[in-house]
Amino acid sequence: MTLSADRVSYSYAGPPKGGHYDGLNRAGHDASSEFALRDVSVTIAPRSLTGLLGPNGCGKTTLLKLMSGVLKPELGSVRLGQRELRGLSARAIAQQIAVVPQETHPAFDFTVLEMVLMGRHPHLGAFQLEGPDDLAIARESLAATGTAQLAHRSYTTLSGGEKQRVVIASALAQKPTVLLLDEPTASLDLGYQLEIASLLKELNRERRVTMVLATHDLNLAASLCDTLVLLREGQVLMQGPTREVLTSATVKQLYGVIADVSFHERAGHITVIPVQRP
Amino acid sequence: MAAGTKRLIAAALVLVACGAGLVSPAGADLTRSAPRLQSEKARIVSLVPALTEMFYAIGAGPQVVGVGSFDQFPPEVATLPRLGALLDPDTERILTLRPTLVGIYGSQTDLQAQLARAGIRAYVYRHGGIETIYRTMRELGTATAREPQAERLVRDLQARIATIRTRVRNRTKPKVLLVISRQPGTLREIYVSGGVGFLHEMLEIAGGRNVFADVARESAQPSQETILARAPDIVVEVHAEGMFKTSSVQNEKAVWAPLSSLPAVRNNRVHVLLGQHLVVPGPRFAGGAEALARTIHPAAFNR
Amino acid sequence: MSPPSRLAASARQALAVDALERPARKPIRTRLAVTIAGFGALAVAAIALAPLVGSTHISLSRAFDRSIPFADNVDAQIFFVARLPRVLSGALVGAALAAAGVVFQALLRNPLATPFTLGVSAGASLGAMLVLIFGVSLSVGPFSTVPLASFAGAAVAAGIVYRLATPYRRAMSTAVLLLAGVTLNSFFSALIMFAQYFADFAQAYRASRWLMGDLDVGSYQPIIAAVPLVAIAFAVFAMLPSALNVLSLGPEAAATRGVDVVRAQRLAFFSASLATSAAVSLAGPIGFIGIVVPHLVRLLVGVDHRIVLPASALFGAAFLVACDLGARTLLAPVELPVGVLTAMIGGPFFLWLLVRKG
Q1: Partners of residue C5 in chain A, C-beta under 8 Å
Q2: B31 or A51, higher pLDDT
Q3: Which of A23, A62, B213, C129 could form a disulfide with A36 if both were Cys (CB 3.0 to 4.6 A apart)?
Q4: In this complex, do A121 and C303 lie within 8 Å of one another by their Cβ atoms?
Q5: Are residues C168 and A195, on separate chains, in Cβ contact within 8 Å?
Q6: pLDDT value at position C22?
Q7: Which chains does chain A touch, 3 or more C-beta pairs < 8 A?
C-alpha cells in the first residue's frame, strides 16, 4: 500500500487558543516560525527504500512521526492506501506500520524475546496471550536480524548494534507493510552502521517491506535508499530517485557545503564527499 | 460541697486575710530577698491548663495576665491573651506582658532559657499522679506566697477523695476499661489508661479495677482482641467536652455493640463521660473522681 | 571486520555468557498459571492461618461451637470480630497497594515509584487529619467519617495531579506527572503539619496515630465499603498488563505498537489511584508494600507485567497479613503499628537491592 502525506503541516506549539488553523498564513502572524512542517506532500512507493534527508531541524523526524500516526497533522492528511491515518486506531495503524526509533530505553529489564514479542501486541486481543504462532514469528524475526542466540539475554546488557537489531526484529514481528526508521545508525559506530545498513537492504529486498529512513547521514542515504526526499526548514526541496536528487547542487542547497557527489565503483553506490566549507 | 462554692469561700478567706494584712496580694519574689513594695504586683502567665486552674483555685486568679491556647477554665480566662501552648509558645508576647512567674512544660527548655535570661522565674510543670497534683499545688502556693490557700485546697481535695473512698469501700471492684481516646464513630485506635498516672489513680479511688493495670505506662493502645480477652465489666470513656457533640453520645455508646461478649456491653454498662474535670490533672480532679465513682457504683450515691 | 564474521563473534560471545544468564523460559501461559497457583496458594494460606494466631490464646473448638450464643462466646468474638476482619483488611490493603505500586511504576517508567509518589496518600492523610482535628462527623451509609474524608482528599489530590500532567492533545509526560506528584506531596504534607500545629494534644495524637497505619478494623463495615472500590480498580488492572509492558518503552514506542497511550495512561492512573485511595482510607498509609512487593516479585518471576501484576497482588496480600501478624504478636501484649514493621523490613531490603545493583 502506498503511504502518502498530502499537504501536511504540523506545529509543536499547537493551534492558537480557542481556534484551529485556517490556512498557513494568518494575518499578523509569522507563520513560518510556528510550523515544523509546512505544506509537505510526499508519496512513498510500495517496497521502496526512501530516505528523508536534511540537516537537523529540517522536519524529517516530524514527518516520520506524522507518517507513523504518532502525531496528527494540523493541516492536510496522511494516508495509507486510501484511508486516512487520522481515522484509524493506534492498533490498526500498528498492524501495518512499524517504527524503529533512534534509541529504545525500556524502564524494566526485559529479555530480548520479550522485547520482540511486544511487536505482536497490535495483533493480540486485550486479554490474549501470545500463542505458538506469535512465538514462531518472533523467533523468525530474531533470526532475520541475526539475534536468535540473544533471545534470553537481558536487553540492557546488549551492545548498541545488538540493541538496534533487536528493535528492528521487534518491528519486524509486527509484520508491517511499512517500516519507518528514525536515524537507525546515528548512535552506532562504523562497523555496526554497515551491519544495520546491509541488514535493512536485505530485509527490503527479501521481505519486500516498504522502508522510510530519516537520516542526516548523506552517505548512508546514498548507499541504502533508492528514493530520496530532501527537506529543508519544514519544506520539501526535492524528491525522486537518489541519483537524480542527490547532486552537488542539492547538497549545496541543503547544507551550504560544496561537495563532490559521484558514483563510487568499489562501494557500488553514490558517495558524497564534502570538499569545501561554506 | 460544690467546687464553685469552695472557690468562693477560698476567695473570701483571701480577702479577709488581705484585709487583716496577713497576706499581701503582691506576689513574693523568691529569687531576690528585696523588700516587697506594696505597688509591686505579681504577674502570672500559665501555658499549662492544669496550672492555670490551680492558680485560680489558690486565689492567684487576679494576678494571671496570660494563659495558654487550650485553657478553658475558669471562665475568666476567656478574656485573657492566649500565648500558645506546648509546641508554639509566643515568647515575645509572653515577655511583653512582663510576667514575674511563668508556668511552662518540662520540655520547653528553650523557653525556660529565654525566661532565665530575662530574669523571669519559671515554674516547670511535671505530669504525674495525684500526689504530684498536690505537690504542684503546694509549690505554686509557695511561688505565689499563698501557701495557706494552697494547703487548704490540698486538704479539701484530700477530704473529698477520702469521702469517695469511704462511700465505695466494701463494694466489689468491677473490672473497668478506662478509655481516654479513640477515633470518633468507630472502635479504631482505642487508647486506654495504663496502670500509671492520675487517671488510673482516680479509677482506683472510684472503686474500679483497671483491666490494664499491668501496663506500666500512662496510656496504651490495645487491640480489639486484647479488649475482648480482658472482658471488662464496665467501659468508661473520659473525654474533653469537645470530643463528641453531646447529641451523638448515644451513637458513640452504640459503637461498642459489636463487642457483644464484653460484660460491659451485655449489661449495658458502657458510659461516655465528657468534661475537662475528667482529663485535666488540676484542682477539679476530685470532681472527676466523683463522676467516675458515681458511674461505677451508682448505688453508693443514692442517698 | 565484515558483518558476517562480526555476527559470528557476537554469537560465540553470547553462547559463552549464556550459561550465566537465565535458562530458556517456558511459554507465558504456563508461567502465568504456575505463578498464580503458587502465589495464590501463599495468599490463601496466609489468610486461613493468620486468624488462628494472636496475642491471646483461644480455643478454636469453642470459637466454632455454634451452640454457644455469640454474645457469650469470647473465643468466637476474638476470632470473628477482632482477628478475621483484621486479616481480611490486611489482605485487601496489601493486594491493592502492591498492585497499585506495579501500575504506578509502569506508568512513571520508574521502578522506584510507589503508590504514594504522586500525592494520593498525602491527600488522603490531609482529609483524615482535617476531620480528626476539627472533630467533624459525616458518615454516609457504610462509610464512616475518617475513611470518607480521606477518600475525598485522595480524590482531590489525584484530580489535581491529573490536570497538571495532561497537556493539550498529547500523552501525559511522566516527568510532569512525577513533578506534580512530588510537589503535591510536599504541599499537602506542609498542610498536615500546619493542621497538627493547631490541634490540641489529643487531636494531634490521634492524627499521628492514623498516619502510622492500622488494620484493626473491628468490624466488616469498612471492608464492605472498600471492596467495591478495590474491585473496580482490579477490573481495570486486568485490562492493563500487556499495555503496561509496551508503555514502559516510552509513549511513542508504545503508540507505534498499537497502544492507545492516552487511554492506557488514564486508565492506569485512575485505577491505581482508586486502589491506593481505598487502601489508605481503610487502614491509613502503610508504606513499603507498594515497592517491596513488586520488586521481590520481579526478582522471582521476571518483569512481564502480565505475570508481575497478579503475582504482586497475591503476594502483597500475603505479605501484609504476615506483617500484621508479626505486629500483633511479636511484642504481645504491646502492638507495633504495622507500618513500622513494613518499614523495618522494607528499608533493609532496599539497601540490599542498592548494594546488589551497585
Answers
A1: none
A2: A51
A3: A62
A4: no
A5: no
A6: 46
A7: C
CA C105 to mean position of chain CA atoms: 12
Picking from B87, B240, B261, the nearest residue to C197 by CB comes out as B87
Report the residue of chain A nearest C12, measured CA to CA.
A149
Grade residue A9 by pLDDT with cuts at 50, 70 and 90.
confident
Size of interface B-C (CB pairs under 8 A): 104
* Whole-number Å distance between alpha carbons of B262 and B267: 9
Q: With helix as H, strand as E and coil as C, how does chain A read?
A: CCEEEEEEEECCCCCCCCCCCCCCCCCCCCHHHHCCEEEEEEEECCCCEEEEECCCCCCHHHHHHHHHCCCCCCEEEEEECCEEHHHCCHHHHHCCEEEECCCCCCCCCCEHHHHHHHHHHHHCCCCCCCCHHHHHHHHHHHHHCCCHHHCCCEHHHCCHHHHHHHHHHHHHHCCCCEEEEECCCCCCCHHHHHHHHHHHHHHHHHCCCEEEEEECCHHHHHHHCCEEEEEECCEEEEEEEHHHHCCHHHHHHHHCCEEEEEEECCCCEEEEEEEECC
Q: Which residue of C has its CA nearest to B224?
A: C82
pLDDT at C104: 96
Mean pLDDT of chain C: 87
pLDDT at C265 over 90: yes
Q: Does C3 touch chain A (CB under 8 A)?
A: yes
- Judged by CB atoms closer than 8 Å, whether chains meet at C55 and B223 is answered as yes
Contact C345, C288 (CB under 8 A): yes
The complex scores an ipTM of 0.88
B72 to chain C: which residues are within 8 Å by CB?
none
Residues 6+ apart with CB under 8 A from C19: none
B101 vs A80: CA distance, rounded Å: 89
By Cβ distance, the residue of B70, B222, B229 closest to C200 is: B70
Nearest to B66 by CA among B54, B40, B50, B84: B84
| Mutation site for C-interface testing, chosen from B90, B199, B228, B249 by largest number of C Cβ within 10 Å | B228
pLDDT score of C304 more than 60: yes
Q: Can you tell me the distance from the alpha carbon of C185 to that of C34, in angstroms, rounded to the nearest whole number?
A: 39
Confidence of residue A27 (pLDDT cuts 50, 70, 90): very low
Most C CBs within 10 A among A72, A108, A109, A165, hence the mutation to make, goes to A108
Query: C218 CA to chain B: closest CA distance, Å?
Result: 6
pTM given for the model: 0.86
Angstrom distances, CA of residue C189 to CA of C122, C150, C157, C185:
6, 14, 12, 6
Please give the Cα distance from C172 to A166 (Å, whole number): 27
pLDDT top residue among B43 and C13 = B43
Q: Which residues pair with A259 in a beta bridge?
A: A274
What is the mean pLDDT for each group of 10 consecutive residues in chain B (303 residues)? 53 47 39 34 91 93 91 90 88 92 92 92 92 94 92 95 94 96 86 93 95 92 92 94 71 89 94 90 94 94 74
In angstroms, rounded to a whole number, what is the distance separating the alpha carbons of residues C177 and C184?
10
Cβ-based contacts of A111 with chain C (< 8 Å) = 22, 25, 302
Q: What pLDDT is attached to residue A192?
A: 82
Contacts of A89 in chain C (CB under 8 A): 258, 260
Residue C208 has pLDDT above 90, yes or no: no
